[in-house]
């Protein structure tokens, strides 16, 4: 059964991170620059939370806080949902669906190994389905 590590093997392990003491403005600029919807928040060597577009809207803008004066630590989601490298894609999808999230950090013992998104899972499954379709097409029409 496919797992989180297989997605990381295809997409890579580069993850945008910000220190927990960074401002919301710093995090938002990084997200905008990299065209991403979430950053993992770190404290020293460990992943301590996640900061998403939804956090900006709900906990900063709607709350009337200043992005340049508010630390990410004050408005991040923590504890965050995460998975392990050996978590199956079904487990990942279940967590994402149940918690209504689109980004799932891959963490073991506080160490960040990568980040998978709902889009990554869809792309992975789509590629596998396409490979199956091509195999079946070859099987059905090449044998005659």
Portion in helices: 40-55%
Task: Please state the second-level CATH architecture.
Answer: Roll
Whole-number total of structural domains: 1
Distance between the termini: 33 Å
CATH superfamily: CBS-domain
Number of helical elements: 6
Mean pLDDT: 92
**Strand numbers in spatial order across the main sheet:** 1-2-3
Low-confidence parts lasting 5 or more residues at pLDDT below 50? none
Give the number of DSSP strands. 5
CATH topological fold name: CBS-domain
H and E string = HEHEEHHHEEH
Into which percentage range does the β-strand content fall?
15-25%
Main structural class: alpha+beta
Your description of this structure?
This protein has a single domain (4-142), classed as CBS-domain. The chain is α+β, with helices and mostly antiparallel strands and 144 residues long. The chain has helices at 4-11, 24-34, 53-61, 72-75, 89-99, 118-142, and strands at residues 17-19, 38-43, 46-52, 103-108, 111-117. The two termini are 33 Å apart. The protein has six helices and five strands; from the N terminus they run αβαββαααββα. Helix 2 (24-34) links the parallel strand 1 (17-19) and strand 2. The strands form two sheets. Strands 1-2-3 form a three-stranded mixed β-sheet.
């Amino acid at each position: 059964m496919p797992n989180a590590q297989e997605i990381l093997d295809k997409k890579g392990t580069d993850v945008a991170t910000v220190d927990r003491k960074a401002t919301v403005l710093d995090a938002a600029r990084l997200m905008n620059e990299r065209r991403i919807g979430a950053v993992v928040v770190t404290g020293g060597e460990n992943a301590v939370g996640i900061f998403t577009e939804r956090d900006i809207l709900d906990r900063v803008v709607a709350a009337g806080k200043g992005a340049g004066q508010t630390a990410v630590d004050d408005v991040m989601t923590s504890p965050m949902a995460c998975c392990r490298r050996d978590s199956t894609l079904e487990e990942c999808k279940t967590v994402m669906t149940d918690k209504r999230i689109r980004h799932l950090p891959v963490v073991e013992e506080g160490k960040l190994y990568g980040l998978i998104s709902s889009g990554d899972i869809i792309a992975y499954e789509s590629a596998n389905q396409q490979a199956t379709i091509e195999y079946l097409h070859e099987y059905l029409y090449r044998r005659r």
